[in-house]
Each structure stands twice: as structure tokens, then as C-alpha cells.
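Per-residue structure
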Amino acid sequence: MNSFDQFLTDRRFRSSMQTSEDQRNPFENDFSRVVFSSSFRRLQDKTQVFQLDKGDFVRTRLTHSIEVSSLGRSIGLSVENRLIDAGILSPEKRGHIPSILATAGLVHDIGNPPFGHFGEWAIQDYFRRFFRTNFTCADALTPAQQHDFIYFDGNVQTFRVLRKLHYIKDSEGMNLTFAVLATIVKYPCSSLEGNTSEGGILRKKFGYFQSEAADYADIAREFSLSGRYPLTFLLEAADDIAYSIADIEDACKKGLIGYMEIRTFLEEGLQPISLSEQERDADFITLFTDLYNDVAQSYKNKLELAVQRFRIVVQRFMISAAVDTFYAHIDEICAGTYNKDLLENSWASNIRRVFKDLGQHIFAHKTIIEKEVVGFNIIHYLLDEFVEAVSSDELQKNPKQPRLYNMISSNYRFIYEHFSDHSLYSRLQLAVDYISGMTDNFALKRYRIFRGIE
């Protein structure tokens, strides 16, 4: 087997000094950089599922990211122990894998726009229309640059945020380690190469904008990557485990799903003929029924408590499945030839699919769709205003355009003015950087002010 040490180098784009008193490993240092960043703080007002929610129970992007970080650390510890015991990883590297995954879990959604995944679709839709009607702008961009906008993705924006959009002392942004940056890139290809049903999961979407293509190339060379960085599979599993079950928990709290609905999905999705041996032994249908019946009838939130207890068991089950599958395919993963989703290819694939189907059922609820439409319209409106402002060559002639330009975050404007080529591509990115960096309520407030509603 390959030595895993090669994937745990502490290289950064700019060298970073640590004092002798600082006993953290380099990836724990990254963790602290993220925790104290403004982009991470803004996740507290970004949608996970329930947009513009007034309650304090349902998850936001911030709480979801903390949960992914926790799960990632747990998975990393289990994988690390196996690799060390097998002689694949040096004992002196102990602690590095869980630290990388904990940090990557914190940042994996840091580039997501307001209003959840519907915010991504709103940006994509806007630019498809924009390029169809603005031929001059379309002709000024390469096909790959156009695709960066019409296939906009929050995970790709995350890589850009970490590399370019945190001005601290120079153009290197947060200056995180290559290992953490590599972990968040799920699809190691450009927007022109990805977004296709061909090529397995590695080409399903894309991983970096043209503006950061050289950065990713440096990272890929450092680790001799021909596919995904190995720990990306584990981060993806942690993310799937976190949201697939937690979304159901939140939906119960909101009253969007009941006991019989959950039980029906379990019964239909866990047919005995298709189950793995481990899934049969777990007997999730009986387990869920027993957990529900064990809660006292006098307890007001009976279903919520049963689902919370069920979540604990299922998460533990899926973590074990992800660890086993990763270790079983370690040679392919290190060689870059493994091209499957860990959980879908594991002995937990059926229970994972049940929760995925349950999630789709919840997302189709009227209350969620109504707020998604609101978010969609807000983002379209803001893009209309700011794209016109940044793409116009008449900033000094039209009194509205310079005013809108000056409303963009001074941090983003400084980065654009000092570290970009001022091309149309860079100007359009400036508008998208600003809007995708907004929180849900900030975007709503901007919309209401511009429309004269308040």
C-alpha cells in the first residue's frame, strides 16, 4: 500500500511562522484561523433548509458546519488509527487527519450564497439569461469563464473565499494549508470539464473557477493528484451524515413530517431483499418504532425525542460504514482511481438513501418552496443592480453606478482593485462575491431598501 504521509504536508502558499510555545499541528492552526474569520461568523445567518426562520432550534449553515466538523474529526480519528496500525501512516502524523477534517468541516459551506441551494440556482439562472441577452459581455469571456457563472456552485466559491477573499496582509487570503484546501475540492476539474453525467462522481460538478485554476494546479502537483484528494471522500461522508439526518430532526420540530411518514419511508426503503447484513442486523424499522413507543405519552415532543435518539444510532452506523469503505478501497483512493461515493458504495447505502428520499419529501413542502421563491427573487434583483454597476464602462457618467459600486464591501473592492486584472470576468466576480457573501437577512434588507419598502 502507498504511504499516506505524502498527503499530510503542511505547505501553504505563503510560509507561516509558529512560535515555539505554539504546540498545535499546522491544521489545528488552520482551525483557529477559520473560527475567527468573518466569513465563518456570517454562516449563523445563512440558510441550511429553512430560510428566514424566526425560531432558534433549526439548523443554520453555522450549526450544520460545526456538526460536520465534529463528525469529520470522529471519522478522521477512526481512519487514522487504522492507517497507523496497518503501517500506512507514520505514528508521528497522529492527530493530523482529524484536524484536517475538522477544519474542512468548518469551512466546507463558507462560500454558499444566501437562501441555501436555491441561492445557487438563482445565480445560475440569472447568468444563463444574462449571457443570452448580453452578447458583448458573453463574447468578452472565454467559454470556461462563462461556465463559472452559469454553473455557479457554493463549494467552488468556498475555495475562492479561502484563497482570495480574506485580505489580511496580502493576496494569499487566509493562507490555509494545501491539505485543508484540497479536502474541500469535491470535483477536481474546471467548469468546462465538469457538470457532466460522464466521468462518475468526479465530473458531476466542478471544483474551481478560472480565477483559481492555477492555485488548484499547484495543490494537485504538491500531492501528485490524478483524482480527488483522499480525505475529500471522508469530508463528503461527514457532510452527508450530518444533513441527511439532521434535516429530518428539524422538520419534525417544524411539524412538517410525522411518525407514520417516517415509518413509511423506512419500510419502503429498507426492503429485506436489498439490505446489507449490517442493515438487517440493525433492524432500523423496529428500532425507530421502539424508540418512539419508549417515550412517555405525557412527553409533549414525543416524535422529536424519538428522532433525536434514532439520529444518534444511525449516525454511528453510517460513520462505521464510511470508515470501513474508505479503508477497504485505500489503494484506489490514494491512486486517484476511486470514483464512487463512499456511503452509496457501503453497507449503509440503503439507510442513507431512505434519509435522502425523506429530505426530498421535506424540501417539497409548501412553506419551504414559498421562501425559496422569495430568496430567488431577491438574488435576481440584487444581481440586476450590481452586475449592471460593475459591468458598465460608464461609472462616471451614470450617477447611480458609482454609488452602487461603493456599496460593495470595501474588502471585496480592495481585493478587486489591487489583486485582479480588472477584466469583465473579474468585475462580474466582484458582484457575485458580494452577493454570495451576504447573509439571508442582509440580502433581504438590501432588497427592501432598494425597493423602497423600508
Summary: The chain has a mean pLDDT of 89. Residues 302-328 form the longest helix (27 residues).
